[in-house]
Design goal:
Pathway: Amino-acid biosynthesis; L-tyrosine biosynthesis; (4-hydroxyphenyl)pyruvate from prephenate (NAD(+) route): step 1/1. The chain has helices spanning 13-25, 38-46, 73-83, 101-110, 153-165, 175-203, 209-213, 216-222, 229-238, 240-262, 266-282, 307-316, 345-357; strands at 5-9, 30-34, 52-54, 66-69, 92-95, 117-121, 142-147, 169-172, 295-299, 322-328, 337-342, 362-364. Strand 1 (5-9), helix 1 and strand 2 (30-34) form a beta-alpha-beta unit. It has 13 helices and twelve strands. The protein is α/β, with parallel strands linked by helices. Bound molecules: nicotinamide-adenine-dinucleotide and prephenic acid (PRE).
Length: 365
């Protein structure tokens, strides 16, 4: 593809990851970026992800092939007016916001439908900022596209092809349907996680035993409670109607669960957990689906200084990138093992063979 120039407004976790993927797959692309954080821009230029760092939305955004709005949702919408003067017939204007109706409404108000295709990579992290961005973040993740009604079919095809070339999986949805679906599978879980963590904080014993003893189950379901407060504040404000309805229906489900427990209804209790297990297990296990597979190996490590560094060096010198590394203790590995997480199955398999070659005991899970 002959992409010449791409603009980014907001260069955090998502903007930074897309910019890095563009740099990886299209090294000659001219990348222009504006972020309110000057240190972010300086780092992005220093790392050669960005060619031109802008102090505002200025003339550097003229003649872009794509402009990606990647700031918190309400800023993306607010910047559209300023961007209008840099719109030209060939431009694909897009965003990465987690809610789509508000930006589509503003696009219609400003008469920008011909160039706007909303975007939303279904990938992310509880960590934010350019510092945590990586080109592989969107790899194998669904990338939802919500085209405006009057956008040309060729533009949508071009954008789909571009998303595919960045190794993500484009899928087209109506923007209202998008907000209803993400309200349930993304926004509701974040609200539940935040409320659950706050509930533990508020009801903990004086000696904070809940905080100390919280184990795998609690940590699995609350990882996302560490996400960016500004991002989630804005999502709740912008998808208010859907979230409110979904929460009301979910509260009913919780009340039913309470009634089943209060009634000591053995059969209903069994069915509740059986049904959830069966449905959860039927969800795609590979990363080609809404739930990303974790690629990890577990390895016995000699209890001596430098043990982890030795393993990290073996992997790095064989070009295997580590996503996460740490000692875990659980019922299966009471003594503790080193858990190493990778970005994909290939790295995980290569690492397992390599470590075995170096006589480490490796467990694949
Ligand atoms: N984090 C996720 O999991 C995730 C996933 C998909 C989509 N999104 C969407 O992506 C967007 C960005 O989220 P993120 O996770 O990258 O957040 P982030 O906090 O990592 O990055 C946001 C960036 O925008 C910059 N910024 C903030 N206000 C600005 C302003 N007024 N003008 C210019 N720059 C500004 C910040 O300095 C930061 O670099 C949001 O709209 C969010 O809904 C997030
Ligand atoms: O993996 C995570 O940490 C995320 O929360 C990612 C996640 C989600 O799945 O809810 C968060 C918000 C987005 O708009 C898209 C993806």
């Amino acid at each position: 593809m002959n992409t010449q120039k791409i603009g980014f407004i907001g260069l955090g976790l998502i903007g930074g990851s897309i910019a890095k993927a563009v740099r990886l797959y299209y090294p000659d692309t001219e990348i222009v970026a504006f972020d309110k954080n000057k240190e972010t821009l300086a780092l992005a230029v220093q790392e050669e992800t960005v060619d031109i760092a802008c102090g505002s939305i200025d003339i550097n955004f003229a003649a872009c092939d794509y402009i990606f709005l990647c700031a918190p949702i309400s800023y993306n919408t607010a910047y559209l007016k300023q961007l209008k003067e840099y719109v030209h017939p060939g431009l694909i204007l897009t965003d990465v916001g987690s809610v789509k109706t508000s930006i589509h409404n503003e696009i219609t108000r400003l008469g920008l439908e011909d160039c706007f295709i909303g975007g939303h990579p279904m990938a992310g992290s509880e960590k934010s900022g350019f510092i945590n961005s990586k080109p592989v973040l969107i790899e194998n993740a669904y990338y939802i596209l919500t085209p405006s009604v009057s956008v040309a079919a060729e533009k949508l095809d071009k954008y789909r092809t571009f998303v595919e070339s960045l190794k993500a999986l484009p899928i087209t949805l109506d923007y209202k349907k998008h907000d209803y679906i993400t309200g349930t599978i993304s926004h509701l879980p974040h609200i539940i996680a935040a409320c659950l963590v706050n509930f533990v904080r508020d009801t903990d014993t004086e000696d904070e035993m809940m905080k100390s003893l919280a184990a795998g189950g609690f940590k699995d379901i609350t990882r996302i409670a560490s996400s960016s407060p500004i991002m989630w504040q804005q999502i709740c404000l912008k998808n208010k109607e859907n979230i409110s309805e979904i929460l009301a229906a979910y509260i009913k489900t919780l009340q039913q669960a309470k009634a089943t427990i209060d009634a000591s209804s053995e059969q209903k209790l069994y069915h509740m957990f059986e049904a959830s297990r069966d449905y959860r297990d039927s969800m795609p296990a590979s990363s080609l689906g809404p739930i990303k597979k974790v690629f990890a190996v577990y390895c016995d490590i000699i209890d001596e200084a430098g043990g982890i560094a030795t393993i990290a060096t073996i992997l790095a010198s064989n070009n295997i990138s580590i996503k996460n590394i740490g000692i875990v203790h659980n019922r299966e590995f009471e003594e503790g093992v080193l858990r190493i997480e990778f970005y994909n199955a290939q790295s995980s398999d290569s690492a397992a063979s390599l470590l075995e070659k170096y006589h480490y005991i490796v467990y694949e899970r």
